[in-house]
Design goal:
alpha+beta; ten-stranded mixed beta sheet; 15 helices; globular
């Protein structure tokens, strides 16, 4: 009876192992790799069972502990690759201290060189991974290890550009992430829950200076404080991007992947455009870009629904198959992935079709401007809104006005911030916020295709030293359904560029150009209207600006100033929304 039980048990495990942990894979756990400074990083190595052969290698370097890549390691090993996942310096089983961004490039260089010397490596190494693991591929590439032959950077973080701040406005989320990646362990349980929203709301409600946030959440953090000392996009942040000379040197195939709703799309496209603008002709021919209808996580785990939007089944790309086909092409000289019909592949929402172009600039071919106007209205009510018109009105001389008083703490009760609707890209709660300006276009006379970033050019005066401004754009269908299109933020003191602040002249009308946060593609239907909502930033989930001349990281609520914001629109000050249109 015991023998029979053992045989059944063994048979069950064998069947399970065939499906999950194939017996044709050899794994070496916690293998140490010595860096050039003597620190040892830990790796898990997955090899095809026949270790008498040499194989191309797929590498992931992660701050989230190598255990996360177990299934991926099995997949690649069963498909003829050695797969190696390495804990970032100071994380998991690796020695040293984890300092985000600062050691990733040199460590990546050392790791690739170590791999190339192993008896199971045929001299070809590819890298892939998303978010932080996408960014560290670019940092490794800056060092040009000769055996790095291909990369797939997915949803790459843009240090200082989309994390831990966007347009020099910091996010409280940054300390949540720093806590998640603190110490050696996987801190998944700490990362989730309502603890964080409660602490962010405490900071907001009590007017606690932003630089005290790490103490408020219970983890004083040197990295957080260092980041705050670099509020501009200065040399500290610029070191994490490729120089023109480095972009020119790139000579390997690259597959960049991001999403319409990817919070790290700004970083992903910054790396991509840097190479496309400064790279050599041959290398640029082998740099492909995919932009899907995906969130940040969706760039690796695509879904057919997001925030109330429903896409076709074709939005759910088999990413494992794509990665494998890409490396088969670039590391094994097999056929190019059939999915890549041209160098730019993007998903057109509305028709739910994949579209293709030879370069990202070719996805639109016209700019359409709609000019803000508000004759006989204050534009502060959705039912008595301003207008978006084909031409600016000469006689429209009265500016629209909103007032930002930080001491009122309206961000805690504004409908936008308390809305918990799962269909967050279709909610209309923003029009119920206090102190917003609302503008509508006439119904569209025909379908239009918007491909790219919606920009907003405004002429504004403020009566304080600084303020944070924002806009949101929507399609309002004939059925009065709201579809989110675009948003963007500006800190007034950085209106002329992110490298250094420039003092705002009080009560002087100045131009503010919002360039748009994310690329997207959507067909707006005939009969729909475009809605523009303009306001200031007032949320527990974004750094507060108390509207005086000091870095908002160190401002105090007792010095907060009420800001009167005037938005002008006429022929002298032609404030307008700019739509990137594709005419077919």
């Amino acid at each position: 009876m015991i023998k029979l039980f053992f045989a059944i048990f063994l048979g069950m495990n064998f069947a399970q192992s065939q499906n999950l942990d194939s017996l044709d894979v050899k794994i070496s756990f916690h293998q140490k790799i010595k860096m050039s400074d003597g620190v040892h990083l830990s790796s898990n190595i997955y090899k095809p069972f026949d270790i008498t052969k040499k194989y191309p290698v797929v590498l992931v370097i992660t701050p989230y502990v190598s255990n996360e890549n177990h299934s991926r390691g099995l997949f690649f090993a069963m498909n003829g690759y050695v797969f190696i996942t390495v804990d970032s310096r100071g994380r998991g089983n690796s020695e040293g201290n984890f300092v985000p961004f600062e050691n990733d490039g040199k460590d990546g260089f050392d790791i690739v060189n170590w791999i190339a010397k192993q008896e199971w490596c045929n001299g070809k190494v590819g890298m892939f991974g998303g978010s932080y693991r996408g960014m560290n591929q670019w940092l490794t590439l800056k060092y040009f290890p000769k055996n790095l032959k291909s990369i797939i950077p997915i949803a790459s973080v843009g240090p200082g550009r989309d994390f831990p701040k966007y347009n020099n406005i910091f996010y409280p989320y940054s300390i949540r992430w720093l806590t998640f990646t603190s110490g050696k362990t996987n801190n998944n349980k700490i990362f989730g829950g309502s603890y964080w929203s409660n602490k962010f709301e405490k900071l907001y409600k009590e007017g606690i200076p932003f630089n005290k946030l790490d103490s408020v959440i219970g983890l004083p953090n040197k990295t957080f404080q260092k980041w705050l000392r670099h509020p501009s996009h200065d040399d500290y942040w610029k070191q994490f991007y490729l120089t023109p000379e480095e972009n020119q040197r790139i000579n390997i195939p690259i597959l960049s992947i991001t999403g319409h709703f990817d919070s790290d799309q700004p970083g992903a496209l910054l790396y991509y455009k840097g190479h496309m603008n400064e790279g050599n002709t041959d290398a640029k021919k082998n740099h492909y870009l995919i932009i899907g209808p995906w969130s940040h996580g969706g760039t690796r785990r695509p879904k057919s629904e997001l925030g109330g939007f429903k896409f076709g089944k074709n939005a759910v790309v088999d990413m494992n198959e794509l990665y494998l086909n890409w490396f088969d092409w670039t590391l094994k000289k097999k056929e190019k992935p059939k999915l890549l019909k041209d160098r730019v592949m993007y998903y057109e929402m509305g028709t739910n079709e994949w579209k293709y172009a030879s370069k990202i600039e070719a996805v639109s071919n016209e700019k359409k401007s709609l000019y803000l106007s508000s004759l006989n209205t204050t534009a502060k009510n959705v039912f008595n809104s301003g207008e978006l018109k084909e031409q600016p009105l000469k006689e429209d001389n009265t500016p629209d006005v909103i007032i930002d008083n930080p001491k009122l703490n309206r961000g805690l009760t504004n409908p936008t911030n308390i809305n918990s609707d799962n269909e967050y890209y279709r909610t209309q709660s923003i029009v119920n916020n206090l102190e917003v300006l609302i503008y509508h276009s006439e119904p569209l006379k025909e379908d239009i295709i918007i491909n790219g970033k919606i920009a907003l050019e405004t002429f504004i005066s403020i009566d304080v030293e600084d303020v944070d401004l924002k806009f949101d754009a929507y399609e309002i269908t004939k059925e009065n359904k709201s579809l989110f299109l675009q948003s963007d933020y500006i800190r007034a003191s950085y209106r002329n560029g992110l490298s250094s602040p420039k003092k705002v002249e009080k009560n002087k009308v100045l131009k503010y150009l919002f360039s748009g946060e994310n690329f997207f593609s959507r067909v707006l239907k005939k009969g729909s209207r475009i809605r523009l909502v303009f306001s200031f930033i007032d949320s527990p989930y974004t750094q507060r600006n108390f509207n005086y001349e000091e870095s908002p990281s160190y401002q105090t609520i007792d010095k907060a100033k009420k800001a009167t914001i005037k938005l002008y629109h006429n022929k002298k000050y032609p404030s307008r929304i700019i739509l990137p249109i594709k005419k077919e």
